[in-house]
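SAMPLE LOG
Freezer: B-3
Tube label: C17
Construct: single chain, 392 aa
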Amino acid sequence: MILKQHLLLTLYSFCGILLKGSQGSFPITQNVTVAEGGTANLTCRVDHNDNTSLQWSNPAQQTLYFGDKKALRNNRIELVRFSWHELIISITDVTLSDEGQYTCSVFTMPVKTSKSFLTVLGVPEKPEIAGFMKPALEKDTITLTCNTSGSKPAADIRWFKNDKEIKGVKEVNASGKTFTVKSTLELKVDRKDDGVTITCRVDHESLSSAPQLATQVLKVHYAPIVKIIPPPELPQEGHYLTLVCDFNGNPTPEPVIWTKDGGELPDPDRMTVNGRELTIAFLNKTDNGTYRCEVSNSIGQDNAEYVLFVYDPSALADQTATDHAVIGGVVAVVVFITLCLIIVLGRYLARHKGTYLTNEAKGAEDAPDADTAIINAEGNQANADEKKEYFI
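STRUCTURE (predicted):
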């Protein structure tokens, strides 16, 4: 009986050891994601192993490594680390065909396995912008397209006008395991868009360092807009005058044409043109008139006018003195009227106050005693009720 109990206890202990060993000998793996062209490391670990070999096999169930022994001849597959508790292999220059489920096996009884799924990201190609072949005209609508292929999953395309994002229309097409993405942008341009940079940006999880970019600088042609900038001081006889013909246009307008009163400049010796500037030396009354600046380019033309009036310096000084005298006279009149109003208002208030006190005391002046004075005052009060005073 005692021997039978001892045998049962030994059997239970042996089964417990086997159960514990089998639980600790399950392989542990994890899924791996890598970009196309990168390196994937497949790791298999076992906590408890009694010198049982580990094995990695590919999605086609071909053995890659059995322990530290290479089973499949492939230069891209290498052993990284091997022990009875760990087997790590690497796959370099990963391609989309390497994607799939890899298996790590521990050859116990029965064989135990663990799956690791290798995900390969397709890297999108550098985008290209098409549709802008020549300078656009102001108020034209241009259509730009941006294309990128080879992404997995499909990449995202975003448009930017300088630093401001603008919306485009995206189209995705599958091509085998990868995707081709196309985005279309329609833009109505004006003169402010000349020189603006349009950027097509491709975002994808495989582009960890930086997104893919393509840029296009816009060229917009527009007619010139002209204005004349005069000097800040008034033109006076004997002085110099410089007028600046300020304009913008694309292509650059040239040449600048200056005229006076619809004809050529009458005195070329004193009136000189240098680029955009017209300079008139030793101004006199004969220079009075309308001066026009006119420019044109292949898109259109524009002009601006300036009416010149030459002042006599002495008359200008007299006018300044007269203005000062007028201003001083106005100020003096305003002060005088204010003082008069204050005096009249003061006298009126003083007179009103005296009259009020006199009416109150009336009747008490001729009274022989105090009682009579009170009676007279009450009588006056009654009479006062009949006369109503209004104070404005």
